[in-house]
Design brief:
Layout lengths: L1 H7 L1 H11 L1 H6 L1 H7 L8 H7 L8 H15 L16 H8 L1
Helix pairs in contact: 1-2, 2-4, 5-7
């Protein structure tokens, strides 16, 4: 489980974030390690809920749709796309089904 690994090895978790995420790369390793004390690590069940794999409506779809409406009202976008067009949950679905 990635959450357990990140909690038990924060130096490794911070390095993975710095190596793979531009925001954390900009922060640097020390600031990234400090952020691990307050960050919420999403586990498989959280991700299943986010993407509706647990049989409930997908939280992602609701958040995406609401944000799209805000962006449209601010003139950032002209016409929102469907949430399904903006996500690829296949890797989470595969893990969830295992």
């Amino acid at each position: 489980d990635g959450v357990a690994e990140a909690n038990s090895n924060p130096d490794f978790a911070a390095q993975v974030l710095v190596d793979n995420e531009p925001l954390f790369e900009d922060l640097g390793i020390e600031a990234t390690k400090e952020s691990l004390s307050w960050v919420y690590w999403s586990n498989l069940e959280d991700n299943a809920r986010m993407f509706g794999l647990d049989g409930q409506p997908a939280v992602f779809d609701s958040v995406f749709t609401d944000a799209s409406e805000v962006w449209k009202s601010l003139g950032v976008i002209q016409s929102p796309i469907e949430a399904a067009q903006a996500k690829d949950d296949s890797f989470i679905q595969k893990m969830y089904e295992e």
